[in-house]
Design brief:
Elements (H helix, E strand, L loop, with lengths): L1 E4 L16 E5 L6 H17 L3 E5 L6 H9 L6 E5 L2 H8 L7 H4 L1 E2 L8 E5 L8 H10 L5 E4 L5 H13 L4 E4 L3 H9 L5 E5 H9 L4 E5 L14
Parallel strand pairs: 2-3, 2-4, 7-8, 7-9
Antiparallel strand pairs: 1-4, 1-5, 6-9, 6-10
Amino acid sequence: MFPIVSPTASGARGQTYPARMVHLITPGVPGDVTDLFARLYGEWLEQQLHQPFIIEDRSGAGGNIATEAVVRAPPDGYTLLWVTSANAWNATLYGNLNFDFIRDISPAASSHRGYGVLVVHPSFAARTLPELTAYAKSNPGKINMASGGVGSGAHLWGELFKMMAGVDMLHVPHRGGRPALADLLAGQVQVMFDTVATSIGYIKAGELRALAVTAPTRLPVLPDIPT
C-alpha cells in the first residue's frame, strides 16, 4: 500500500507545500488497515509539514469510489489517495471505469509492504491448513469465507487459495474489512484472509486462530504460522 497524489497543477510548482489543509482519501472504513495506516501517516505528516491532514474513508467498489473521488478533485496536490494493491487489479476486474489509473494518478511515496493471514473462528473444526483443506473438500460450499468486498485483497487471496487447494467455499462480501472481521469474531462466518496488522491482536488474544500467512517466509510477528 502507498499513498499517491493526483497530478499536480503547474501553477502550484515552486510554492511551499502544503500551504493549507490536505485531504487523504482511503478506500476503507473506520478501523480497518487502510484507515489505521492512513491516520498514522497523517499524524506524522502533520508534524513534519505543519498543516492538517484530514483522513476521509470512502469505501465501496473495491476502492474505485475513493479513486474516482481523487481523480475528480482539482489536480493541485491537496487531495491524496491511499492506494492498495486492489488499484492494480481493478483495471482487469472492471471494464467500465470512469478513469485511467496510470494516466490520471501520479505516485508520491511508498509507505510499507503488507501480508495477509488466513484466520478462522476458534470454534471452527480445522486447526491447521491441511485440516481446513480436508474439511472444505468434504463439505463443498458449506464454509463461509468473509472479505471486505468483491475484488478486495481478502477476496482475491481467498479465490487463489480455493483454486490452489481445489476447494469450494462460499464468498461472503462485506462493505470493508472491518465489518468482515467483526462477523468472523462473532462466528457469523468461519474463514477470512485478513491483513496481519488488523488480526494480530485477536490472534494473540485467542479470539482468532491463524492457519497460514501469504508471505514467502514465516513472519517474525507470527513465527509459528506457516506460509
